[in-house]
Every structure is written in structure tokens, then in C-alpha cells.
Amino acid sequence: MQLSAVIDVLTAFAPLPLAEEWDNVGLLIGDRSQTVEKILTCLTLTEDVAHEAVDQGVDLIVTHHPVLFRAVKRLTTDTPEGTMLLRLMRAGIAVYSPHTAFDSASGGINFQISKAIGLEEIAPLRPVPETELLESMPSKTVSTPSAGGGRFGRLPAPMSLSQLAEVVQQQLRATMTQFVGNRERQVQRVAVACGAAAEYLKDARAANCDVLVTGEARFHYCLEARTIGVSLILPGHYATERPAVEALAMFLQTEFPDCKVWASRHETDPLQWQTY
Predict the structure, then answer these.
(1) pLDDT digits 0-9 by tens, 16-40
(2) DSSP track, 206-248
(3) Measuring CA to CA, which residue among 116, 119, 26 is closest to residue 69?
(4) Strands 260-263 and 186-193: what pairing?
């Protein structure tokens, strides 16, 4: 299988025009004509993941968080990132990142979280008109209904904020969940924005949501949430995005049955939790 064929499937699933303007998405390292037999997905391309890829003879890493995020003037072994990337390049391993395009795709991360926690009538918080998206694509054959930033929907029945936090924690396999708001408050209209996306608070409020589920939030966003009356549920950045990376591996395995595809077995959440 040529790398270009894998890229075609990835861009159809998560069209790159959906990415935020500040993002760095698409093929970051590699030759589109190279052969791909083994694909590894991960949330973040760390040294541990790179070692796994090289040791297992991987041809393509699909990392959610992009490497080379900012402009690079030199690529040397003087930095840990440079050392890691040069090792991948010597091994002929390509690197692709869908990042915020994957977040916002019609079947992307935010949609997957919304389904997992039981939301109905799911719609984007920041919708992208389909005509606008298709006009920006090289091929007009891609259809992406309901694409856009974040999601919101309704629970089948109201539940307490504490009960919803428990559902989120279980469904995302989070170790611990933080929240902002009255734990007994009844909530039904829920907004979702994976990763570190508390900037969607105002969107959640505009959509009349009771609560925003996001991975993590800075202290002042937590204060803002309490002030404007939108509760927060924070299961962790890793927990909101790692399950979708695993689902992406299964999706690619189905699309390319002759390839071997798996989610990194060495990737872990850098945050550890302890209770006293």
C-alpha cells in the first residue's frame, strides 16, 4: 500500500480544512510514494512511541498531536525532538497528524465522546457549512455533514452533575475527574470539546448547555464557568482523546486489511493521580 492511499482515507475521514488556522496538520514527514505495511496511531509522538515504532518496523505513525508544531530552523541531535525525528527519518517512518481536523470531523473525537456519554440530537457548537468545506477541498466528492468545532446534545433524561461526571469517567476510562459546579445540580444539555478547550465555554452558554465536558481547563476558565453558570467536567486531556486514537487504529485496520495497524502499546498519560 502506498502512503498516498492512506492519506486519501485519512483526509476523507478528517478533512484538513476543518483544522484550526494555527494548527499544523497533514503529512509532516515522509514520501507519499513510499510503501506502508505497518501503521501505529498515538495521541502524542514521544520518545517511547518513537522507540516502539522503530523496534516494530512501523512505516507510518498517525499522531493526533503534531510534531514540528512551530517553525523549525534546524533539525539536529542538539535537541530531544531533533534526535527523535532524525531517528524516525533514518528508519524511513512517515508521520501524519490530523489533530483539530480529527476533533471537528463529523465522526471525529468530539462526536465519539458525545455518543459514548449518551447524548442525543448531537450537533457542532461551531458548525462549518458543508458547502464551504467542500469548496476548500481539492475533491468535491467528500461529504461531511455536521462537521465543526465541539459538540452539544441532550441526555435522554436529566441527571445530577455528579452522576454525569461518573458516566464520563467510566466511558473515557479516566483515573479521576474534576468538576466545577454544584454536584447535585440537574443537567441535561451537554457540550463537549476534547483536549484543552475551555474556550468553548461561551459557545456552550450560547447553546443553553448546562455543562461543558473538556479535558482540562486553566484556573481562570474555571472561575469563568462558575460565574456564568455553566458547569465543567474535566476528566483529563489524555482521557478525552486517547480512546479515539484507538478507534482510529481499528478504522484504518478495516480500511487496509493487508496492513498491520495498532494504537501505541507504550503510550501512557504523563499525569498520575494519588488520593490520601
Answers:
(1) 999 999 999 999 999 999 999 999 9
(2) HTT-SEEEES---HHHHHHHHHHT-EEEE--HHHHHHHHHHHH
(3) 26
(4) unpaired
